[in-house]
Structure formats: structure tokens, C-alpha cells
Specification:
Helix content of chain B: 55-70%
Shape of chain B: flat
Protein name (chain B): Energy-coupling factor transporter transmembrane protein EcfT
Structural class of chain A: alpha/beta
Strand order of the largest sheet of chain A: 6-7-8-3-9-10
Structural class of chain B: mainly alpha
Chains: A alpha/beta (286), B mainly alpha (278), C alpha/beta (406)
Number of strands of chain A: 10
CATH superfamily of the domain at 1-84 and 194-242 in chain A: P-loop containing nucleotide triphosphate hydrolases
CATH topology of the domain at 1-84 and 194-242 in chain A: Rossmann fold
Number of helices of chain A: 13
Shape of chain A: globular
Number of domains of chain B: 2
Order of helices and strands of chain A: EEEHEEHEHHHEHEHEEHHHHHH
Membrane topology (chain B): Multi-pass membrane protein
Strand content of chain B: under 5%
Order of helices and strands of chain B: HHHHHHEEHHHHH
CATH architecture of the domain at 1-84 and 194-242 in chain A: 3-Layer(aba) Sandwich
Largest sheet of chain A: 6 strands, mixed
Number of strands of chain B: 2
Largest interface: A-C, 45 and 50 residues
Helix content of chain A: 40-55%
Pfam families (chain B): CbiQ
Oligomer: heterotrimer
InterPro entries (chain B): ABC/ECF_trnsptr_transmembrane
Largest sheet of chain B: 2 strands, antiparallel
Main location (chain B): membrane
CATH class of the domain at 1-84 and 194-242 in chain A: Alpha Beta
Distance between the termini of chain A: 34 Å
Strand order of the largest sheet of chain B: 1-2
Strand content of chain A: 15-25%
Distance between the termini of chain B: 47 Å
Chain lengths: 286, 278, 406
Amino acid sequence: MERKNAAAAELQNVEFEYEKGEPVLRDISLRAEKGEWIAVVGESGCGKSTLVRLLNALLRPRSGTVSVFGEELTERNAPLMRARIGMVFQNPDNQFIGETVEEDIAFGLEGLCLDLAEMERRIERYAHRLKIEALLGRHPGELSGGQKQRCAVAACLAMEPEIVVFDEATSMQDERSRRELLEVMRDMKRQGSYTVFSVTHDAAEMLAADRIWALKGGFVRADRTPDAFFADEELLGDCGIELPFGLRLERRLSALGAAASDGGAAETGAKQAGEGGYGRVRHRQT
Amino acid sequence: MRDKLIIGRMIPTGSKVHGLDPRAKITAMLLFTAALILSDGWAQLAVLALLAAAVLAATKIPPKTYLRTMRPLRWLMLFVFLFQLFAGPGAGSAEASTAATALWTWTAGPVTLTSAGLSAALLAVSRMALLIVFTALLTFTTTPSMLSRGIEGMLKPISRGGTGAERFSLMMRLALRFIPALLEEAQTILKAQAARGADYEEMNAKDKARLLLSLLVPVTVGAFRRAEELTTSLEARGYRIGAPRTAYRQLAWRAADTWFTLLFALLPAGALIMRLVS
Amino acid sequence: MFGIGRHKRQFESSGDRGIEDRDRSGSEQAEASAGRGTFEAPGQTDSAAEREIVIELTDADYTYQAGGPFASAALHGVNMRVRRGTLVGIAGGTGSGKSTLLQLLNGLLLPTGGSVRVLDHTLLPGMKKPKLNALRRRIGLSFQFPEQHLFEDTVEKDLMFGPLNFGLPKEEAQRRAAEALASMGLGEELLLRHPLTLSGGQMRRVAIASVLAAGPEIMMLDEPTATLDSAARRELIALLARLCREEGRTILMVTHRIEELLEAADEWIVMHEGRAVFRGDADELADRADELAGWGVAVPEQLRCWAEWTARLPQLAALPLPRTADDMALRIAEAVRGAEISARSGNVRKPFGGAGSGPTHLLGEAGSGRPPAPSDKAESLPRAESVRRAEAETIGERGINVCATS
């Protein structure tokens, strides 16, 4: 039974361990609302990827419950729920199953038992949305890392999931592809029909999110808005995150009093410097 | 390593052969192989070679590319040639060969070469070459996924009800997709070793063997890592063996496929008849 | 006038770090703040122009699978020179030829056109594959993925693999292994571990240590920071910068984030579609920032912020690009104060007319008082705050001084 006001995903007192006696996640209780974009951050090995894998029952908690759209995940409903949760992984090579981009997108759709006409419609629609129409007939070996990742996103979105998880999807990408992918994620956010989780090390990606879940040593270290998160330098240090250059400059300037003496110059400068990301966050978050 | 391995990649030219149903092409290849095995003389081989040449030409892929596919196997071919020459039928004792309708014999000490032996050896190598070229033709004109779909389609009637055909097809698809990646990974490790003073190409046989052995662990680990990520990704995309699926690329058998298969069906039949007649 | 005099001295002494004979005062400040001025290894005092060229590519081409059905050119007519003891950043998008370039330099690939000279070896197209171990001992290459790099069953064996292959006795190799591990900031307890059980960051460092153990004069690293988190990236780059500054090694590092290496690199090469489309230092890079996107490289934040501010305060345009956020903030703050003060005093003379005359003094002082910035990860807040406050005060005082003396 799906409740109307249910959270998109909710973890309650979740514990997880791969090997006995070595807990990876401890007593995690978090809640994500529908339509939210949540960045999951922390040093490598803190359990971020494990956490998002619990969300679509790729892993099962040792204790505690994971619910998606108000429904607790069980062995039984896992395949059904997975159709509602798409995932994009770090290495695009190892998620490419089809021989061509088109076939790869179709692979997931075949599993949904769609008829040919619907498959063609979706392939066309999502190829268009991710601007990969020209690549549909290509072999993954002929694509750049960024193109492969766009195709992986298309394959994921074509299944029309309600939750999309990006598991370090940008970390192997070059800077340009990273920005392109971030734009895709922003687009998804604007559409409003997705709940997005992104596991990331990238500051721009964190700043674009609505909320940041920070993990440390398997515990929840923080659950804050990006602004509040980046204001806490100790927290940043705990998560292995460096303040991005634009923000660092902004802070130093205001410490030097320059920002105050030159009106809003420092702030706008740093904002624009942040390439949309910082500025937009500040406007959105009131 | 990868540049030598060109078999297993489709070369798109948009020819008629590319458009044939993979099942027709696989069947044709099987029939062609059968004919090769059954053939026992230059005349039959010439017919097969002519047909193969016609189909090769129809693929619009430059002949040089086909020749390159034989390169990795050139030592094996040489071995087969020499083996046939010295140990095959028609070789051996001088009496036996003179008894046969040999045009010439040539003896140097214990070694005797006869025209029949030479002919047999050349025949064996030519058969091998034709087989390689025809296999290459299949992979050059068919994407691995179509190939595996073709095999799945052909196996399905046999494994009625079970998931055998599907399993096999998935395995084929993944293998064809990932073997090149694994080879590339092995090559990178070899390069990393060369960069640290262990250049494979500068080594003696013993060191080479040791070095290749040391590749085993990282390549296996790499393969497992890939496999794990792939399984996760398959699972995340809702894939389960045996779960109902629709097919995006349905195989369509057309008249051309029937004719193509029939043409190749004539070959072993013809060879068989000729054998029976003679 | 003290400031100008000080700057002059700095500029003169900065000659020893340069690659080309151009005004290096900008990077000199970055260096000062990066702690480079604190050591002066013997044999490193030769002037820039005299530094030996250790790598020279002349119209180098490389084509993969030349003549085959899948032939694809990876490098076209690449020209470049690298002098000993410099840290060179190589940037470019995926498939721009960065990795091919590195493999050309240690003879893993031979050029298909032009010539490649590395140290005293010259590689030419079509030559019979020479014995390259003598060269590879002197130029190490660390590949992009550390797990493809580590193949022995203990870290120690892995570290010894290179030295042993290059003919060192076992004890010596063992000693080098331990040294290399230590200089990458890892403890000896890792020596007996299996390399594949290490964490990503450790694995990456062990992979670099395995190259370092052979004692190369030139080290090439292919995207060593990919997949590391930002704090780990900064630490690693600080370690590399130290190998270059303290031990005089030449370092070529491929990255797709110019930003992370801008502070440490002496020179940049940008690759695009197999061509070296840019060669020069960060200041020149700043001049051509608008071309970066076309080359498939993201404009680093430093350049974007600086462009933003120079548009706002034109007097900044004359200054070389500050490499760190602290330096940039100081200069901007100074310019802001300067503008205010000159406006207040009605003085026509611009306080910072000359290229970097004023700020240099300040930064020299502020910078030299601080520990090396790249490794300064755990910069504790209160202390940093007090330093900043002190700096702010200095600016205030100095601003007044400028006005008083002028």
C-alpha cells in the first residue's frame, strides 16, 4: 500500500556489514522526500556506495528497514521496486551490455516487457533528451567516456524510474563531461519528476543538490543543505572535501574585509565564478 | 595485442551480406565447414574457394583485411603444412609414394618429399585458410549481439522450456563484449611491466613465461571486478534469468536468407555425392 | 619603495625556477607560498635558460594500427621541450592524445613520424626496436589505474620489481622500496600487504612509489588524481611537487583538472585532437582562457575568478595570475583598498601602477610566513583566521603608507 505522503526513500536504524564484525553502516536513519536531490558524500570507504545500493535492494541491511515510497523493501518486491529505481555507475564500460547504444537502451526496456513501438518511442525520446541521437548506432568502444555515461543515463531514464541514483557517475569523467552530466542532472531536477541521489566527490555536484548526506565511519555525520554544509570547515575536513576555489576566495575576501568595502562585488564575483552552481543554490535556498 | 586481434569486430559496409539473418549466416558457415571437411581434392576446394570469394567480394570489405586475420595463425598453419608434408598421407616411405601416382619424388637422406605429399599439405593449409576467412566473414558482417541472438534462436527449439538458450546467449553477448576489454587490460599491465624494466619483447622464453604467469592474478582480479560491476548493473536494470522479456531486435527470416542457406546446403551435399560416386 | 626593491630581488632570484625567460614573478609568489623558497638543493641554482632540455619532440606523429582497417591517428606533429627539474601539467579531454604522448616518451610506442628525444636517447619512426631499459630506468611511467600497475603479491615485491629489473642488487632494491614508500608518505607496515587489499588512495601512492623506487630522473603520471577525493588529491600533488622541488626530478603529470595543479605546475601543455595546442605557463594560460573550452578543457576556477575580478578592477589585469585563493584574495583586497584610498585622497597616482610592484612585497611576507600551502591540508581555523586578520591589518597600514609616501 503506497501512502500519498510517503517519503521517496527512508532508512530506519539501518546496519550493514559485508563481513561479520566489520560494520560498514551503523544506525543510519535518513529520509528523502519525493523530488529531492540528495548528494551522498564522505571519504572513500565511508559507506556511501553501500548506502545507495541498499535503496534498490542490491544489498540487504543486516538490521533496520529500508522503505521506498512507503513500502519496505523485501526479497519479494525487490524486482518490482527496482523498476522504479534507476542507477548509473562509475565505470560506464562495465554497465554497457548492448552491442550498440540503441541495443543497450533497449536491453532494459525488453526486461519491462514493452512492445516494439513503445521501445522505439522511448529510445527516440530519451536519445533526444540526452542528445545522443547521433550515437545510437555506435559501438561503446567508439564513444568517449562522457558519451558513454550519457548513454548510460539515457538507458536508465528510458526505463522511466522515479528515483535515479548516480553512484560516483562523474568521477571517472573528464572535466567537460562532468559538467555536461551535471547539467543533465540539473535538467532532471528542473523536470521535478525524479528523486535523485548522487554519490560524489565533486563540489559542484554537492552544491547543486538540495541536501547533503555526509557519512563518516559508517555513521551519519551530517544531513544539511549545501550552504550549511560548506560553511562548516570541520565537517568538510571530516569528509575529505576541499572548499572549491571560488568559495575559498569568497571567504578569504570577506575575512580581509574586501567584500564589505566593495559592496556586493566579492560575492557576485565568487558566485559567477562558481559557474552557476553556487549562485543558483543560494537563490533557491531561502 | 589488440591490433592483431581484429576478428570479433563488425566492419560496417552496409552490404547485402550484412543484412542477412544471422541464423542463415551461421548455418551457412556450418555447412561450409562440413563441405570443407568432406571435400577431398583440388576440384572441390576450388569450387568452395570460388564461392567463398564471391561472398567475400559481396561483403565489400577489402581482401587485405581478410588476409590479416590469418596472421595470428600463421605459425599454426606452417606447422600443419610441415606436418602434412612429412607425416601426412602420401609422405613417409619412398616405396609408398612411388607406388602412388606421384609426378616426382625427392629424397634427401631419410626425408622423402613427394608431389602427393606436397599436394596434401597444401590442401590442408588451404582448407584451414578458407575456414579462417569464412569465420572472419561471419564476424565482420554480424554484430556479436546479432550472432548471439542467432545462436539463441537456433538453440531455442532444442532447449524447449528451459533457460539454457537464454543463459548461453547472455554469456555469449557478455563474453564478446568483454574479452576485448580484458585483453586490453592485460596489455596495459604488460606495458606497465615494460615501463618498469620488464619488456616482454626483449625477453627470453623463460622470462616471458614467468611474466605472463604474473599477469594471471591482476587480469583475473580485473575480470572479477568487471564481472561484479556488470552483475550489479544487470540486476539494477531489472534483469533476471528466466523473467519474461520482449525482444527489440526480432530476427526476420527473408527469402534471401533461404536462398543463401540453400546455396550453402548444396556444398556438402555435392561433396557427399561426389564421394559416393567416385 | 621597500616593496619594489624587495620585488626586484625576488624577481632576480626567481630566474632559477623558470622554464622560459619571461617574467615569472607571478608564479614566484605562488612558489613562495608553496614553500618552494625554503630549500635550495645543490645543483639547482643554474639559470632557467641553461637548464638541460631532457625531453624534445619534433613534429612527432603516432598512428595506432598504422595500415590496418582500424587505423587511427593519435598524435599529429607534436612539438615540445621540457627542461630538467620542471613540473609540467598536461591537460586535455578524453582521447586528446595525452596518454599516447606519455607512452611515446619511454618507448612503449615508437613515433610513426618526426622524432622523440628523451635524455640521450632518440626514437625515430621505423627504427628497429632498441633496447630501452637504459632509458626506462631514467624515465618512469605510472599508469592511470593503479590496479593495472600492481601485480606482485606484496607491496614490497612490487616496489622492488623495477629496481631488480634495472639490475640493482636485492638489498639495494629493498632499501629503495622502503625509501620510495616513505617518500610517498606511507608507513613501512604496508610492505608486506597484498597490493590489491589497499585503499584506493594507498594503491595510487604505492603505484607511484613503484615508479619512484627505480630512481627515475623523469616521472610521468597519467591522471594520478582521478577518482581520489579532493583532500587526497591535494596531498598527492603536494608530494609530487616536493619530488620535483626537493629532489630535482622532472615531473610530467596528465590531468583533466587544470585547477588542481595550477598552483604547482611550472608549465602547461594542452592536448587537443592529437595536437599540442598550447604550451606555456599559467599566466599565458590565463591569457588564452577563452580558448580552453574549445580544446575540451574546463576553465579552471582560478582563471574564472581572476577574469571576473580583473573585469571589475582593471588595475588587477597588469598583475600575473595569483595561483592560490589566499594570494588572489590578498591582491583583490589590496586593489579594493587601493582604489578606495586613492579615491579618498584624491591622488591621481594609482597606487599599484607597475606590474605587481606593490602586492609582491605583501605576498612575499605573508607567503613566506606560512607553511607550504599544498600540504597545508589541516590548516586549523583559528590560526588561519588570525593570520588573515594580521594580513588585513597589514593591508590597511600599507595602504596608508603608500598614500603617505607618494
